[in-house]
Amino acid sequence: MTLERFMNEAISPWMREEGPDHDIVLSSRIRLARNFADMPFPILAEQKDLEDIRTFFKEEYEHQSFGEYTNFEFISIRDLTAIEKSVLVEKHLISPFLAKREGAAAALISENEQVSVMINEEDHIRIQVYFPGLQLTKTLNRALEFDDWIEEKVNYAFDESRGFLTSCPTNVGTGMRASVMMHLPALAMTKQINRMMPAINQLGLVVRGIYGEGSEALGNIFQISNQITLGKAEEHIIEDLESVVQQLIEHERKARTRILEQSGIELENRIFRSYGVLQYSRIIESKEAARCLSNVRLGIDLGIIKNVSRNILNELMVLTQPGFLQHYAKKTLTAKERDILRASLIRERLQIEE
C-alpha cells in the first residue's frame, strides 16, 4: 500500500458498506486527542521534540496492524504536494489544520482508511475512527480499544481530576469529539434546520459543515458533534449526541414525507432537473454540483430515481472537490478548468452507472 492508493480512490473501503439509518446518516466518527506526558504540547514544543514524536510513530507503527486495521501507512505532511494534502482533507483522512502544519506533522492511516492517527496536529496525537451509518457506540468502543493499544507504548498527559490534558481547554477531560455526518435535504428545504440549530447548541452540541469547524454545509450535509468534554463520561456524551441525532432523523423523515404529500410534483421536478444538470452540464461549479448531488441522492432515497446507487453519489461528492480534480488532471487547474473537468467526470460516472 502506498500514498497513491489513498489518492486514487474517492471512496474509502468502509464507506461502501451501509450502516444503520444510512439514508440519512452517512457516518459516525470518534476523535480522541492525546499528548505525551513528558513532552511540551505542539503549540510550545521545540522542533526537535516534535521530530522525536514523529520518528517514534514511524518506527513503532509503520506497516503495523491492530485487529482488522492492517498495514498502517506512515505519511509525512512535509513530503506532500498541496494537491495531495487537499485530497487527504477531502477524504477526511487528515484535518485542514494538519494539512497546514509544517515540519514534523504526519499521519498514520489504516489500509481500509477507517482509522487514522494525526501526529503533531494541535495535539501530539489525534486518533480518528469511522463507521458507516449511525454506530456511535461501536465507533467509541473501537476507538478506545485502539487508544489502549497506543497507550501501551505512550505515557499520556493525564490529570486525576481533569482527565486528559490537551492544547485547547475545550478538549480537556475525555479529549473526545464524537460526530455524525448527516444528509438533511428536507430540513434544509423547509428551513427547519435553521430553527433547530440554536436548540442543538443549547444542548452542548454544535452543527458544522462537511469539513468541520468553519466549513460550509455543502450538499445539505451537516456534522453534528459534542462541545463538552470535561465532567462527562464518554458514554454519556454519546447518549446525548445519539438522542439528538435520532430526533433529527425523525424530523428529516417527516419532512420528506410532508414534501412528497404536499408538493410531490414540485419535488420530482427539482430532483429530475438536478439529475439533468448533472447528466448534461459542460461547466459546473462545486456548490451547484453539491446541491444537485444532494437532490439526486434524495431522489434515490425516496425511490424516485432507481438507476443510480448511493455509492456513486458518495464518490462524486469527493471526486468533484478541487484537490481530487487536480490530482485526476495531474496538474494545477484554474477555477474554470476545474468546473469543466467536474462536469465531465460527473457525466462519465453517471453514464457508467446507467
From TrEMBL:
Regulation: Appears to be allosterically activated by the binding of pArg-containing polypeptides to the pArg-binding pocket localized in the C-terminal domain of McsB.
GO BP annotations listed: phosphocreatine biosynthetic process
Top-level enzyme category: transferase
Residue span of motif RDXXRA motif of the pArg binding pocket involved in allosteric regulation: 338-343
Residues bound to ATP: 27-31, 92, 126, 177-181, 208-213
UniProtKB keywords: Allosteric enzyme, ATP-binding, Kinase, Nucleotide-binding, Transferase
Gene Ontology CC annotations of this record: extracellular space
Catalytic activity: L-arginyl-[protein] + ATP = N(omega)-phospho-L-arginyl-[protein] + ADP + H(+)
GO molecular function, one term: protein arginine kinase activity
Annotated Phosphagen kinase C-terminal domain residues: 24-255
Pfam families (alphabetical): ATP-gua_Ptrans
InterPro entries referenced in this protein's UniProt entry, alphabetically: Arg_Kinase, ATP-guanido_PTrfase, ATP-guanido_PTrfase_AS, ATP-guanido_PTrfase_cat, Gln_synth/guanido_kin_cat_dom
Record-listed E.C. numbers: 2.7.14.1
Biological function: Catalyzes the specific phosphorylation of arginine residues in a large number of proteins. Is part of the bacterial stress response system. Protein arginine phosphorylation has a physiologically important role and is involved in the regulation of many critical cellular processes, such as protein homeostasis, motility, competence, and stringent and stress responses, by regulating gene expression and protein activity.
NCBIfam families: PRK01059.1-4, PRK01059.1-5
Annotated family: Belongs to the ATP:guanido phosphotransferase family.
Protein name per Swiss-Prot or TrEMBL: Protein-arginine kinase
Species the sequence originates in: Ornithinibacillus halotolerans
Gene it is expressed from: mcsB
